Amino acid sequence: MFEGFELSHAPLSAGTVRVRTGGSGPALLLLHGHPRTHTTWHRAAPLLAQHYTVVCPDLPGFGQSFVPADQPGHVGSSKRAKAAALTELMHQLGHSHWAVAGHDRGSYTALRMALDVPQHVTHLAVLDGVPIAEALARADARFAQEWWHWFFFAQPDKPERAILADPDAWYGHSPEKAAQMGQDNYQDYRAAIHDPAVIHGMVEDYRAGLVTDRSHDEADRAAGRQVQAPTLVLWAEQDDMGRLYGDVLAVWRLWVAGHLSGHSLPCGHHMAEEAPAELAAALHQFLETN
């Protein structure tokens, strides 16, 4: 897994981040989603490393990266705090400019990075996501039924107790899932979901979303602040972006001042595992033509 990549643990101001790097060329930061770790990129990252210096960290609160300390408003788990930590990581690795692609929960940190440090972000790619404030403003009965976990995870204590009672049952455990993910990726993910500290960190990511992240998004929207970098939006045909939002790009036009493009991919939600070649090709075409 990740042949030719280097695995390290980078000490940052807020804590230590596990990160894997490989390839050469312009820097590309890949941010995973819930409940995965950076190893979700194990099929796509080597394809991208043929053209780019690929950086794959575990998000703060996930995998083997530091779990932010609990704070009022869950500000340590806010996407602003995570974007700041990963900006520090990129500087520590010697990069002054980079493209960032984020999937699922990672897409919120990627968006926040593009908004907060636009002088460093050359391109933004969002995979299966819309801004948190947009998701909540557009929430209806269908959203509540399909994304109920957003609101359950916002409750104190109960989510951790429910998940840790049987993490394999909560997230799904089967030989078929292991084969689909790849054995090494699957074992890394399973180690994460059985760690009580990581479960708390991942749930805190959602709690921050409904409080601090939402307020950050709403402040940007009120101020007319938009992404200046070229932006690519990709969504899985077999997931619910299309059902929930119809024209996904129309949602993003409110947030992007620069070039905006996007399309669906023929796969389920975990596109880096299910359609790595198609994802890598779409990212490469976007980065080379914008």
UniProtKB/TrEMBL annotation:
Keywords: Hydrolase. Gene3D superfamilies: alpha/beta hydrolase (3.40.50.1820). GO terms for molecular function: hydrolase activity. Residues 26-275 form the AB hydrolase-1 domain. InterPro entries: AB_hydrolase_1, AB_hydrolase_fold, Epox_hydrolase-like. It comes from the Bacteria. Pfam families: Abhydrolase_1. This is Alpha/beta hydrolase. It comes from Deinococcus radiophilus.
